Amino acid sequence: MRILRLWAPSLIGDHTLCYIHTNREGRTCINEVEIPVKFARAGESLDGEEYAGAMTVVLPPEAELCDGGFLAVGERGDTLLHWQGESASFKVCTAGFLGVSERAQIWSPIRTAVLTVSDKGSRGERIDTAGPELERLAFAQGCVTEDRKIVPDDPDEICGAVREWAERGISLILTTGGTGLSPRDNTPEALLSIADKVVPGFGEMMRIETLKYTPRSFLTRSVAVIKERSLIIAFPGSKRGAGQCFEAVTGGLRHAVETLTGSAAECGNHGEGAR
Q1: What secondary structure, in 3-state letters, does 7-55 show?
Q2: Predicted model pTM
Q3: Model confidence band, residue 234 (pLDDT cutoffs 50, 70, 90)
Q4: Which CATH number does the domain 110-261 belong to among 3.40.50.620, 3.20.20.210, 3.40.980.10, 3.50.50.60?
Q5: According to a count of CB atoms within 10 Å of the terminal CB, is the N or C end of the chain lower?
């Protein structure tokens, strides 16, 4: 699917290329001008007032965006917009360029939950930075966090949280912490104890890719498993380590979830949807 037209009457009219981002107030800007971004299908009239003060991205007639869906633009989805159905406009997730004839994909939102495993964090003695970092990075992949928890390094607590989310139909569960070598690092064992399947490639990619940052990357015991129709991935407990490991596996993340849940054809998703 390609972008067919970029229409903004208040900014000259038709554009072939523009840069979209947010300002300090979080408002959407096009080429430094504060202006919302709308969506229309080819053949629809753009004469209405709702389009007069906006940049309208025109997609093929068959394009469908459900509330909360994402528009990923570029060969790797480098520019990402989140469709806000109530306001009928896009929110910028990842700043970048929009261009006529640029490749675009519609992504359905991935239901996500984040679990921080930390004795000190569960007692309020340490601020959780890795969990919010995973949530931020996941959102840039079209993952919408529905729930988040902090539990101690206890296998029963870890398993209980994961089971609850899997039963609720959460498609992607991200854990952080408990992947090291200390006696209280129990996350891999907890996840493996309830796993229906193991997906070794995620941990392998983390260890391989993070070698560029530290020669001790092979010490992480990060794993990924499947429980029912949920993909659960364990990340290190530090903000930096969790972020580096997440970036290592983004290439297959969406494809893995869509394959597991059978949702590749939902919400107007076009193309592979992988990044």
Answers
A1: EEHHHCEEECEEEEEECCCCCEEECCEECCEEEEECCCCCCCHHHHCCE
A2: 0.86
A3: very high
A4: 3.40.980.10
A5: N
